[in-house]
Amino acid sequence: MRLSVHYTTAYHYSEPPRRIIQLLRVMPTSFAGQTVLDWRVNVDCDARLRMGRDGYGNVTHMLYVDRPAESLAVSVEGLVLTEDKAGLIQGLPHELPPPVFMRPTPLTQPGPAVERLAGETLLSADVTLERLHALAAELHQTIRFDTEATGIDTSAEQAFSAGHGVCQDFAHIFIAVSRRLGIPARYVSGHLFRRDGQLVQEAGHAWAEAWIDDLGWTAFDPLNGICTDDAYVRVACGLDYRDAAPVSGARSGGGEEELKVKVRVSEAARQAQAQSQA
Q1: Which parts of 66-197 are beta strand (E)?
Q2: 87: closest CA among 219, 210, 252?
Q3: Which of 78, 80, 139, 262 has the most Cβ atoms closer than 10 angstroms to its Cβ?
Q4: Would 2-82+246-268 and 98-244 be classified into the same CATH topology?
């Protein structure tokens, strides 16, 4: 598919902050099944952007605003060509050894509830791939999607015990169980084209990738209970959400902060056709 992505993160401050520094992970890379045709990062005020790459291979932009500003909007526009590879992730330009992604983090540390789920997953099948499919299906069926239930600091154990969460929580639980079973797993942030027609979304998407010896990295979306396909745009990865968050940073002053995020993912061919008929 030819997917068009428009992603805006807008901040409004009750008092202009003296300085703003942000780390952006908003630019995808090309690999087998994903070709970035065009991608731009724009800022609506006087700012400096410095492009780089972090230790996980993610493209980064350091954003510096050195003058007081009442508001800040970072917008991303891009066009990506995707193919359905049944979840297989191959040809990434930068890779780390799979054992790196066995490292536990506070957000993916298993507790009693996740330990029980790991035991059930171990008994669900004899083959790693089948176990991971069973795990994704189990989370899809038993965890309720709820945008009000959790926050960015909610751990896998907390979300699973509560029985609800957002895509970030589904990914953390999947990762925690996988690592408990000795399977390297990593967190992925990106975008999802909604085939149900909901083009405008309140946030990006998140899923997980697990290392399978006979296949390599394979992507699972436990929120939807499937492997990723051509509806997904992969942007960044890491041990957990904190390593792959689209935006993180700090500011000096600024009082209260109001944040609005708007994401639009559409099929570019259909978008062009709709515009021509208007």
Answers
A1: 71-82, 144-145, 164-165, 185-192
A2: 219
A3: 80
A4: no
Supply 38's token pair.
């065009």
Cβ contact 159:150 at 8 Å: yes
**Tokens at 8, concatenated:** 């805006």
CATH fold of 2-82+246-268 = Immunoglobulin-like (2.60.40)
Which tokens go with 101?
Answer: 């992604």
Q: Which two tokens stand for residue 81?
A: 């060509």
Domain residue ranges of the chain, discontinuous segments joined by +: 2-82+246-268, 98-244
Strands annotated E in 69-121 = 71-82
CB 80 within 8 A of CB 34: yes
CATH of domain 98-244: 3.10.620.30
Q: What is the pLDDT along the chain (278 residues), one digit of tens a residue?
A: 999 999 999 999 988 888 999 999 999 999 999 999 999 999 998 889 999 999 999 999 999 999 888 889 999 999 999 999 999 999 999 999 999 999 999 999 999 999 999 999 999 999 999 999 999 999 999 999 998 888 889 999 999 999 999 999 999 999 999 999 999 999 999 999 998 888 888 889 999 999 999 999 999 999 999 999 999 999 999 999 999 999 998 888 878 888 899 999 999 875 444 444 44
